[in-house]
Specification:
This protein folds into 2 domains: 145 residues, Clavaminate synthase-like (Double-stranded beta-helix, 4-Layer Sandwich), CATH 3.60.130; 138 residues, Clavaminate synthase-like (Double-stranded beta-helix), CATH 3.60.130. The longest helix has 14 residues. It is globular. It contains 10 helices and 21 strands. The protein is an alpha+beta fold. 43% of the residues are buried. The strands form 6 sheets. An 8-stranded mixed sheet has the order 1-4-5-18-9-21-7-6, with helices on one face.
């Protein structure tokens, strides 16, 4: 164990490989020191631990403001990933930091890999608890390869269809943001422009088709792979937003059942999607947020979600290439 960091364990964790892998890995400080210097001097070690665990929760470190969190993100030295093409309403806070999905507190956000519905997605995600929730509001996480293995065992034909055809994601966007919707980002902030021709170019770069409507635009993404091969770990991962779209992409413009289909346009079998949701819940870990917590997730390895909560709660995020 690196001298600055102590590994702690919490009852919510899961254990894999005969207890050699704790998910997530939880680190707290051994003594008072500069967290930023410790990250910089132990970057290689932290990267290797992230690679084996999939997620690291840093608890009880002196991270008390959004600016402190931005310093932590910068210390890791990962390149910034701009949030273009994502669905969630968010606002910029400081530096590379923005709010996590700002949808209403009574709504759950289902399991997904960040931006799995577009070809270019972040490889790492940071979350930071600035204000801990009164109750609820956890960010459950789950190892993607475990979901792939369980789904393949239980629904082999469905998984084969996914591997062959991929998925298609369809979403209708208004002009401006709708903060009452979990997918309420309007097209202007999705494509960071108010010029339709610029939006079309940016969408095309993402491999997305646009169909302009009277009061917004329909985006069609895909077919896009739903299962990817994670080269660095040499295993297949359940890399998609299928359950999130099918159960959660709902507002006055969007019907979640139509929001995701097989890549050839056929509807998905509802019972299999809901069974996948059940497996995700069974395998997930939900550690209650504590003020100052920083959660680093490898987006290649882990899906995440959000439980409903009683405000206040403020969790900030940062995405990395």
């Amino acid at each position: 164990m690196a001298e600055f960091f102590t590994e702690i364990q919490l009852p919510q964790q899961k254990h894999y490989n005969n207890h050699s892998i704790h998910f997530p890995l939880i680190l707290s400080p051994t003594f008072n020191f500069s967290f930023i210097d410790a990250i910089k001097s132990h970057k290689k070690w932290l990267d290797s631990r992230l690679h084996s665990a999939g997620a690291i929760l840093f608890r009880d470190f002196p991270v008390s403001t959004a600016a402190d969190f931005n310093d932590v993100v910068e210390a890791f030295g990962y390149e910034e990933f701009p949030y273009v093409g994502g669905a969630a309403p968010r606002s910029s806070v400081v530096g590379r930091v923005f709010t996590a999905n700002e949808s209403p507190s009574d709504q759950k956000i289902p399991f997904h890999h960040e931006m799995a519905q577009v070809p270019e997605f972040p490889s790492k995600l940071f979350f930071y608890c600035e204000v801990e929730p009164k109750t609820g509001g956890e960010t459950p996480i789950v190892l993607s390869h475990i979901i792939y293995e369980r789904m393949k065992e239980k629904h082999p034909e469905f998984v084969q269809e996914l591997e062959e055809h991929g998925l298609m994601y369809i979403r209708v966007l208004g002009e401006g943001d709708n903060p009452a919707s979990p997918i309420g980002r309007g097209w202007k902030s999705t494509f960071l422009t108010d010029d339709k021709s610029v939006a079309e170019k940016r969408a095309a770069k993402l491999g997305m088709k646009l169909e302009w409507l009277e009061d917004g635009v329909k985006t069609i993404m895909g077919p896009i792979p739903a299962i990817k091969y994670n080269e660095s770990r040499q295993r297949k991962v359940w890399f998609n937003s299928m359950v999130a779209a099918y159960t959660g992409w709902e507002d006055d413009r969007n019907d979640p059942v139509k929001a995701v289909t097989f890549g050839d346009g056929r509807p998905l079998p509802a019972e299999v999607v809901y069974d996948c949701l059940k497996i995700l819940e069974e395998e997930s870990v939900a550690i209650p947020w504590k003020k100052g917590d920083v959660l680093l997730i490898d987006n290649w390895a882990v899906l995440h979600s959000r439980r409903s909560f009683d405000p206040p709660r403020r969790v900030l995020a940062s995405l990395c290439k």
